[in-house]
Amino acid sequence: MSETISGGHLVAKALKAEGVDVIYTLCGGHIIDIYDGCVDEGIEVIDVRHEQVAAHAADGYARITGKPGCAVVTAGPGTTDAVTGVANAFRAESPMLLIGGQGALSQHKMGSLQDLPHVDMMTPITKFAATVPSTERVADIVSMAFRECYNGAPGPSFLEIPRDVLDAKVPLEKARIPQAGHYRASTRQQGDPEAIEQLADMLAHAEKPCILLGSQVWTCRATDSAIDFVRALNVPAYMNGSGRGTLPPGDPHHFQLSRRYAFTEADLIIIVGTPFDFRMGYGKRLSPTAKVVQIDLDYRTVGKNRDIDLGIVGDAGLILAAAAQAASGRIQDAAAKRKAWLDELRAVETQAYEKRLPRQHSDAQPIDPYRLVHEINEFLTEDTIYIGDGGDIVTFSGQVVQPKSPGHWMDPGPLGTLGVGMAFAMAAKQARRDKEVLCLFGDGAFSLTGWDFETMVRFDLPFIGVVGNNSSMNQIRYGQAAKYGEDRARIGNTLGDIKYGEFAKLLGGYGEEVRDPAEIRPALERARESGKPSLINVWVDPEVYAPGTMNQTMYK
Question: For the Thiamine pyrophosphate enzyme central domain, which residue ranges apply (predicted)?
Answer without folding.
Answer: 196-322
